[in-house]
Structures are given as C-alpha cells and as structure tokens.
Amino acid sequence: MLLFNIRGDNFEVTPAIREHIEKKVEKIERYFPEGTDATVMVNLKTINNSQTQAEVTVPMKNLVLRGEERHEDLYAAIDLIVAKLERQIRKYKTRINRKFRDRESLGTAFASIENETRVLDSLEEEEEDLTIVRTKQFDLKPMDEEEAVLQMNMLGHNFFVFTDAESNGTNIVYKRKDGTYGLIETS
Predict the structure, then answer these.
(1) For the whole model, what pTM was predicted?
(2) Rounded Cα–Cα distance for residues 161 and 152 (Å)
(3) Fewer Cβ atoms within 10 Å of its own Cβ: the N or the C terminal residue of the chain?
C-alpha cells in the first residue's frame, strides 16, 4: 500500500492535483510484492511562475526510487516522472534477476509481471550502455572549492574530483541542472 505525503512550495495542492498524483503514482505499485508498504514523498514547486518542478521519492528497503521533472504543465511532469520510475524499476529488477538468481530475498524485491520476458529482452539493450569503456588515472591536486569549479568548467565536465586543501579529504564538485554547483564532501 502506498501512502502519500504531498507538499507544494509556493502554491496550494488542490484535491484535483492530489487525486491525479495518487492515481498516476499508484501504477508503480503493481511492481511491488503483495503487502509492501511505501511512503511516496511528492514535492511540487513553481519556478519563475512559468515552470513547475515535481519530485517523487519512494524510499524502500533495498533502494530509493526517485524522479524529478520540470515542465510547464504539472500534470505532464507527473506523467513523465511515473514513466521514469517504471524504467528505474524495470532496470533494477533486470539487474537483480541477472546477478542474484540464486538469492531469493533480493530476487523478490519486485513482484513478477506478466510480460517480464519482453521487458528483459528490451532492457538487455539498455544494459549494454552501462559498460565502462574508458578508465582514467590522475593525481588529486590540493585546492579549494572555487578552484575545483574553475577546473571543472575549463575541462567542460559536469563534475570534478579534488583533494580539499584545508581538510585533506577527497571532495567532488558538480554542476546541477539549475546551473548552480554542488559539493560532496567525503568522510
């Protein structure tokens, strides 16, 4: 059973919006085994009064399903997120089935679906995209976050790994979808 926690930032969640979200997101429940309880957290935001950002998170025992979309139409954003979550579930289920066929506990993370063989066949092509085709090695130069962001931008990458000059820890800076930057500090 899915429980919903729907929040709206900068606007009110109407009963029609709530009903649409619940109706669409409940479609993914068919992938779960009977008796699975999950809380679906939905955050809705308006951006620049023209776009809506919708984020759906479903924390579960072995994984967290998460989808985020920006769209001018809130209902379309929810539809896109549900499609994204279904792809994530299928991909995860395929990996589990291939890797842990003899381990029953992980293999039952999702309920079986009738067209599983068709899904597995179509996802085999997607699995090939996950092959590592290049390996790089480099020395981590001590620097601060600003210098790391400059290095990342000069290289044209979306992330950059560096050693923090102050803490001597390995950190990562990355470019976010909204154009701002994020920092991941390791411990």
Answers:
(1) 0.57
(2) 9
(3) C
pLDDT of 53 strictly over 60 = yes
Question: Per residue in 62-106, pLDDT tens?
Answer: 677 888 888 888 889 899 999 988 888 887 777 766 665 655 554
Strand partners, 42: 6, 56
Residue whose entry in the numeric block shows the structure tokens 């560096």:
162
In 48-86, DSSP assigns E strands to 51-59, 64-71
Number of H helices, E strands in the chain: 5, 8
Predicted confidence at residue 103, as pLDDT, reads 52
164, 87: one domain: no
Residues 174 and 103 in one domain: no
The answer to whether 17 and 25 have CB atoms below 8 angstroms apart is no
56: CATH:
3.30.160.100
Domain tally, the chain: 2
